[in-house]
């Protein structure tokens, strides 16, 4: 079993929940958190603003905010069988990818044992 | 890759976060947690306070950076010279894989 830890944008939560349910992952838990990433300034964002003249708002603007600021994110955890990890990761990436920095991260952690509280069985 | 979970005093997170940034580890996640430690919380008279507010920092680093991050957290989260009960704990667990959603690439 593996634990899939995903940090995603708060405005993508509903779509992620729906996509995960459709892909066969109804069970998950999520909670709000604050975070910051590597925030290396991408030249393409700078070009985008120079060319279009758009003000750095929303997602693009996140790259320009000061590095120390923490941005609200949603922290998803789901525990899946080994062969389902790829599907879960692909589902999350597909729904959350906008191509801008700040889309989030996914980490895969090993899980040794799980127990059901209701029955005491140690199966997923 | 390793996941570092540090549960520290809320009033120390500010300094820990800025020192981590200065040490070259900008990426971090913070969340509020409540818990108790080996001292069974704080006992004052007959009253036991066992849900003490703390803040948890989650940092995923490459294996070779682990010691540096732990040292930075340890140095800045500790209160006083020798430290006190309630300064927190650091847990380290393995991470198999990491993906960046914006690019879809594997790796930190």
What report would you give on this structure?
The complex is a heterodimer of chains A (124) and B (108). Chain A has helices at residues 13-22, 43-52, 58-62, 85-96, and strands at residues 2-8, 29-36, 71-80, 104-110. Chain A has a domain at 2-37 and 70-110: 2-Layer Sandwich (Alpha-Beta Plaits). Chain A has a 4-stranded antiparallel β-sheet with strand order 2-3-1-4, covered by helices on one side. The model of chain A has no long low-confidence stretch (mean pLDDT 83). Chain A is elongated, with a radius of gyration of 17 Å. Chain A contains 4 helices and 4 strands. In chain A, helix 1 packs antiparallel against helix 4. With 124 residues, chain A is of the alpha+beta class. The longest helix of chain A is centred in the last third of the chain and has 12 residues, at 85-96. Chain B has a single domain (2-94), classed as Alpha-Beta Plaits, CATH 3.30.70.120. Chain B starts with a strand and ends in an 8-residue tail after the last strand. Helices cover 20% and strands 39% of the residues of chain B. In chain B, the strands form 2 sheets. Chain B has a 4-stranded antiparallel β-sheet with strand order 2-5-1-6, with helices on one face. A two-stranded antiparallel ribbon of chain B has the order 3-4. With 108 residues, chain B is of the alpha+beta class. Chain A binds chain B through residues 2, 6-8, 31-39, 67-68, 70, 73, 75, 85, 89, 92-93, 96-110, and chain B through 1, 3, 17-18, 21, 26-31, 58, 60, 93-104.
